[in-house]
From TrEMBL:
This is Dynein axonemal assembly factor 4. It comes from the Eukaryota. It comes from Owenia fusiformis. The keyword Nucleus applies. Residues 110-130, 173-189 have a biased composition (Basic and acidic residues). Residues 108-130, 173-205 are annotated as: Disordered. GO terms for cellular component: dynein axonemal particle; neuron projection; nucleus. It is found in: Cell projection, Neuron projection; Dynein axonemal particle; Nucleus. SMART domains: TPR (SM00028). GO terms for biological process: cilium movement; inner dynein arm assembly; nervous system development; outer dynein arm assembly.
Length: 406
């Protein structure tokens, strides 16, 4: 049974009460303090101090400090007045004290739950604000990159138009030159006919004015059959080279080849497989299928350290974070995967659908349904015949419109 502390001291003013409780040599780490508006308790086994206050105090603005072998309470009175005594006049009524003690515990529990909810709500609001700011910065960066691309395209188009004008001018000059040559040869033939009818002079004759030989007209020779050799350029994609996406496809191939290069690592403890990001990706896929999402994350993260340009590593790790409820990390990995899945070509359309879907799902779990719908609509543009995507997008749209509960 605990030993009650009786040798405490107290002082007061109109607005405050000061209580000093000796700790009897007990270490401060073992002191437990509990307080409400009408009840104080200091527990430091085997000692116990309980105080049922004469009147209510403001517990939120009150304080308790431990030091120099004492616990010092500074309590703020709710009503400015001088108390005739520290504790309530019901101190001898055990039933009343028991009821006050139970009320204090219930009040403390409710206050703790309320503050926990407030902290959780504040954290959610802070995360939401941070996410919006990050999205704003990301949007500004994307707009800047888009401006640079538009400027480069405009400059390229201007260069192309200038080249076309130059080619057109050269073609016109060539036509004028050929026309002048034809007129000159026609004039020479007319002059030669006047000098010697029935003879055709060679260019050598016209220069020295002497006709030596007549040009004999030979019968036309029969053309011999020939062959036309046709060669085909090797293509890694099924599309024709003349199509406008050929350049983008070649760029995508180059990026994938670069991404599959294995980086050298200085850790001699790793096996040859552990140095291969593709092997680590497959290992992570196996962990994911068995439901071991944390092990899959570790495998993908190690692969990213070896090769940070493979979009599948980020997209797969985003799926693991989504399974574990790590929505912010899922958003980051999905966005990184989409940045690496450029240029957008048919060969990476399925991967872009997965990244958009995972990021959209993470947005919806954070109750950012408008942003989530944008990702689902982007995925639908790539796979318009996917019924699951269409149903999910419709459901998100209904939540935004308020016709379906969240």
């Amino acid at each position: 049974m605990p030993i009650a502390i009786r040798d405490h001291t107290w002082e007061q003013t109109d607005t405050n009460v000061f209580i000093n409780v000796p700790l009897k040599g007990v270490k401060t780490q073992k002191v437990d303090i509990f307080s409400t508006d009408e009840y104080l308790k200091v527990s430091f086994p085997p000692y116990l101090f309980e105080c049922f206050l004469y009147a209510a105090v403001d517990d939120d603005s009150s304080s308790a400090k431990i030091g120099n072998g004492m616990v010092v309470f500074k309590l703020t009175k709710k009503s400015p007045e001088i108390w005739p005594e520290l504790q309530t006049n019901e101190i001898e009524n055990k039933e009343a004290l028991k009821a006050k003690r139970a009320t204090a515990i219930t009040y403390a529990q409710e206050r703790s739950e309320r503050k926990e909810k407030e902290r959780a709500e504040q954290k959610r609001q802070d995360d939401k604000y941070a996410l919006k700011e990050a999205m704003k910065l990301d949007s500004e960066e994307r707009e800047r990159i888009a401006d640079v691309k538009r400027s480069a395209i405009t400059e390229a188009n201007e260069d192309l138009e200038n080249w076309k004008e130059e080619q057109k001018l050269q073609s016109e000059q060539q036509k004028i030159k050929e026309a002048e040559e034809r007129r000159f040869r026609e004039a020479l033939r007319k002059r030669d006919k006047k000098k010697s009818p029935g003879k055709i002079a060679t260019d050598k004759d016209t220069t020295n004015g002497i006709f030596e030989d007549e040009v004999k007209v030979q019968p036309s020779e029969i053309r011999q059959p020939g062959k036309i050799e046709v060669s085909f350029t090797h293509r890694d994609f099924p599309t024709a080279a003349r199509e406008s996406t050929a350049g983008l496809e070649e760029e995508w191939l180059k990026k994938q080849n670069e991404a599959r290069r294995i980086r050298d690592t200085e850790d001699d403890n790793l096996t040859e497989e552990e140095r291969n990001p593709v092997w680590l990706r497959d290992k992570g896929n196996e962990f994911f299928k068995t439901g071991n999402y944390q092990a899959a994350i570790n495998a993908y993260s190690h692969a990213i350290k070896l090769q940070s340009k493979l979009p599948a590593l980020y997209s797969n790790r985003a799926a693991c974070h989504l399974k574990l409820g790590n929505c912010m990390k899922c958003l980051e990995d999905s966005s990184t995967a989409l940045d690496l899945l450029t240029p957008p070509v048919p060969q990476n359309a399925a991967a872009r659908v997965k990244a958009h879907t995972r990021r959209g799902t993470a947005f919806c779990q954070l109750e950012l349904y408008v942003e989530g719908l944008q990702d689902y609509e982007a995925a639908l543009k790539l796979q318009p015949d996917n019924p699951q995507l269409r149903d999910d997008a419709d459901r998100i749209r209904n939540i935004i419109q308020g016709s379906e509960p969240t």
